[in-house]
Amino acid sequence: MIKNCITLCLLIFAFPVFCEEIELSIDTQQTTHLSFTAENNCIYSFSYSYDMSSWNQFGAQVLGSGSPVFLKHRALNTNSAFYSIASAPADNPQTSRSFYLGFTLFPYDVTAVAQSYIRQHIAEDADIVALHFDGGVPWEESLRGTLDFSNSATVYNANFIYDIVQAYNSISPGHKVYLAITPINIDRTGLAYYRGASENMPLDPSDPLVQGSLTHPWHTYRFNHDNVKTAFLNYALTMIALFQPDYVAIGIESNLLLTTAAGTPAEVWSDYLELHQYIYTSVKTLYPDLPVFCSLLGAALLDGYRAEDDHALQIAGLQQIMPYSDFFAVSLYPYLTVYLAESIPATLYDDLFSLSTKPIVVTETGYPAETFSVLNGSIVFNGTEQKQLDYFTDLLAYANQHDFKFIINFVLRDYDQLFDFLVSIGQGTDTQKLWRDTGLYNHNGAGRPALQLWKDYQQQPVRN
Predict the structure, then answer these.
(1) 285, 357, 350: which is closest to 328 by C-alpha?
(2) Strand partners, 222
(3) In sequence order, what are the residues at sequence separation of 6 or more whose Cβ sits closer than 8 angstroms to the Cβ of residue 139?
(4) I want to staple 203 with a disulfide (CB 3.0 to 4.6 A). Which of 166, 219, 288, 343 is the partner?
């Protein structure tokens, strides 16, 4: 096909200052993309010698350093054309993304170098940071009020204050902030443990580890106890005030209580629902525009994915809690199911995300890029870098098509060094292996193929 080209002298004006003059060659038979920076409200004056009287529409897209813009027709005759600039709707999934991409601050080692590395790469490889506080609640201090440094009775343990400061300093300028706190313990069996000098300390005030720190019998309290409601609300309001998050979870993998709760799961869930509704309503009263929700383990909501879950009970729980959750927030690890790292059902995403009409976020996810085993080799996860890439290829494409709000890959870099350290002090467990090899960087810091896919999406603008 013969291409008819026109040489144009493009004069760009951004009132009241003249910008620049650019000479362009425009293909009149194909869509031509012009690459130059432009400001909104510029006027483009075209001069040419070619007879364009029959050329009624000009479809060139201007790709600037900011949001995409389109030239719109203003006037046209055989000698000149004038076009005005207008913002283009950034709603094409092929050239934009609906979601922010981020990581937690989970370190790959116990060193300051590792912490610095994680902060640096979150700044470079993400546009949202997940501040994930799953190590207990400062129950006693929070019962006395919200954090007030002029009132020592409300001040958290210095070690926890240090962690809060470190988290705050990890927020890069311009990044979104997702804050996750929870009244549920890390075992997902009941009330969160105490956050004192260290994470997940006992709730019994008679325990030598917490003597002098706890005075109330937290180990006897149910989720709907008045002291639990008061303390957790004060804690939530403190953390929101400190971090000013864009999104906040007030429960982490809450639906696991329906599976692993000590006692009768249905009764524990009923108590938890009462607490959750109280916290949700109270926070929304003060922060009506802040998205508030709890995360749910996605696999537990799918029939047949985990033998330990009662599917009917899980769906009933979902229906009960979603009226008090602004997002359908899911924790998603497809390999921690009966499918291991062998395959992922083709209908997983439709089956899971059709369960709610709320906006969707993936609060944590990951897929192993290496093979490992647990239970003395009796269960093997045959992870590979290609399988990890395939997982994120499908997840990110589906997320973009269905307008997910954000996606958090929990582990940025494989934490082999951290795991080896825990083994050396007698604290390494099979459970800690489960996420060890899910980083987009391997244990040596080399990027995996899934990282390049991640970065390719990161280069796309986030559409509204």
Answers:
(1) 357
(2) none
(3) 192, 194, 195, 203, 214, 216, 218, 228, 231
(4) 219
For the chain, the structural domain boundaries read 5-87, 100-458
| CB-CB contact of 145 with 230 (8 Å) | no
Using an 8 Å Cβ cutoff, are 5 and 26 in contact?
yes
> Cα–Cα distance between 228 and 236 in angstroms, integer?
12
408: which 2 tokens? 């958090």
Q: What is the pLDDT of residues 397-449, one digit of tens each?
A: 999 999 999 999 999 999 999 999 999 999 999 999 999 999 999 999 999 99
Residue 82 near residue 43, CB atoms below 8 Å: yes
| Domain 100-458 class in CATH | alpha beta
Closest CA to 348 of 336, 330, 334: 334
Q: Residue 140 has which token pair?
A: 């006693």
Could you tell me if 442 and 414 are in contact, meaning their C-beta atoms sit under 8 angstroms apart? yes
Residue-wise pLDDT for 299-339, tens only, equals 999 999 999 999 999 999 999 999 999 999 999 999 999 99
CA 403 vs. chain centroid, Å, equals 13
pLDDT of 297 higher than 50: yes
Is residue 464 a contact partner of residue 454, using CB atoms and an 8 Å limit? no
